[in-house]
Amino acid sequence: MNQQDEIFKAFQKALEEKFQSFNSTPNPVIDNLSPEDLSMIIYSTFEENAPIGFRKEVSDDTLSQIPFLKLTIDYLNIVKQTETLKLTAKGNLPRKICLELYQKGYIAEEMIEKGIVKLNREGDSVVLQNLKIISGFAGLTKKKHNKLSLTTKGQKLLAQENYFEILQLIFKANFQKFNLGYHDGFAEDVFITQTFGYTLYLLLRYGQETRKVEFYVDKKVQAFPSILASFSNSYYSSPEESLALCYTVRYFERFLKFYGFVDYKRQHRLKTLAEDVNTTDLFKKVFEIRSDKFTFKKAKHSA
Question: Cα torsion at 167, 169, 171, 174 (round to 10°)?
Answer without folding.
Answer: -140
